[in-house]
Amino acid sequence: MYQGVEINESTPRPLEQLLENVHVSIYSSFCDRVLAAQASFVNDPGTPRLGLYKDNLLQVPLMDTLTVANYKGKLESIYAGALFLYLYVPKNVARACLEQQSLAPIPERLRLRAGGQLAIVRDPFDQITANEIVETYNRYGCSNATREDVEFFMAVPHTSEFNAPHDDRRVKIRRAVFGRFDIAVIGPALYH
């Protein structure tokens, strides 16, 4: 399981560099270890026959831990080279998500009506305002979101479950279980 970090950077350029370091060095190395573990599973003589699925398991890191029980189910792929996506939440929620490596602590008021999670493509140092983030939440049905709800960011990997709505490339929506999930970095959002 990935162990994320909390940072407390208060200026944009150093925050950008820290996030880049975590993405390129730390999380990419973690994805390499995930692939090695998947290869070990795939190549184990006791693993059931995987057929064409085997090649995918050797090339794409998964959010899920691969087991004999789940290897044929729908698994969430990590786009290892993709930039992080950002979830904006209250500080205590970000810390709970980081500690648990899970999206479960996210309150209902910050979840989409159909059970989805909204991720913002824009970086937390990218001259955005808290009001813009709140308006985005409101536009997607989280009408009770407030400025206090978006004080912290969580950097998460872009996975196969995040999809862009047809009319807005600034957000991604994940309609999957609010369970275990890699939370790479949390920290205060640096609003403009």
UniProtKB/TrEMBL annotation:
Xref: InterPro entries: Glycosidase
Limits of the Cytokinin glycosidase domain: 12-167
Protein's name in the database: Cytokinin glycosidase domain-containing protein
List the source organism: Rhizobium laguerreae
